[in-house]
Design brief:
- By secondary structure, the protein is mostly helical.
- It has one domain (2-191).
- Helices cover 68% and strands 0% of the residues.
- The protein is built from eleven helices and no strands.
- The radius of gyration is 24 Å and the shape is globular.
Length: 225
């Protein structure tokens, strides 16, 4: 009970409609799939109307909706593709998980680099990237929710009810800063401290007999050397 109250306050839900009786994550999940279906069906007006409906229902944007919005500007030929950078900046201000921001940012930057070379992928194929990235964002969003519930279950109920909106904002900032830099982002550490490999875990690979063509190629390369 206390966890549900806190999560509703954390995600700033302010609606009193009948649909608010459903769990927040389930209501959002319904919109996720509707947004994706509208995006793949090229129903651009419906996509924008769904986003408007979410705001009217008091559902704020998260990792999934921001991701879909960013790639909407790439998939929709009737809007300026550069607007996806505005969505990225909005994600940073909203303290969206840094991993999701980096994932979107790297992919979008790659698109523009390819566009400069006139080698940008077709929009139909870009849907595959979008599907991969929004489903990854959905999984991360789900894990964050479960981790938050576990943290709240460890707290005293009386202390939990005393948490204010300011405390929630500080928790969001702290989580964002903790995830801003990860060990995988530190290239210097990777080179200074190489990963140790346990050779006992690896079995000896049996050498297979080369076919005639492979053997001929290998002998030819040895002669060149």
């Amino acid at each position: 009970m206390f966890c549900n109250i806190f999560i509703k306050r954390f995600y700033t839900v302010t609606t009193t409609s009948v649909t608010s009786r459903k769990p927040l994550w389930r209501r959002k999940q319904t919109f996720y799939h509707k947004l994706w279906n509208a995006l793949t069906a090229k129903k651009w007006q419906e996509f924008n109307e769904l986003l408007h409906s979410m705001r009217n229902d008091g559902l704020n944007d998260d990792e999934v909706t921001y991701t879909l919005k960013a790639h909407y500007f790439i998939l929709n030929p009737h809007v300026a593709v550069e607007n996806c950078f505005l969505v990225l900046e909005e994600m940073k201000k909203a303290l969206i998980h840094p991993s999701v921001i980096r994932m979107n940012e790297f992919l979008i930057n790659s698109y523009f680099e390819l566009e400069e070379l006139s080698c940008e992928p077709p929009r139909l194929l870009w849907q595959n990237f979008t599907k991969m990235i929004w489903q990854t964002s959905l999984k991360l969003n789900r894990q964050r929710r479960h981790r938050l519930i576990k943290q709240l279950l460890l707290k005293d109920p009386n202390d939990l009810m005393k948490i204010s909106q300011k405390d929630i904002e500080l928790m969001a900032i702290e989580e964002f800063n903790n995830n801003l830099l990860t060990p995988f982002m530190s290239i210097k550490e990777i080179y200074d401290y190489p990963i140790e490999v346990n050779l006992d875990k690896f079995k000896e690979v049996k050498i297979k007999k080369l076919d005639f063509q492979s053997q001929y190629t290998l002998d030819h390369m040895n002669k060149i050397e």
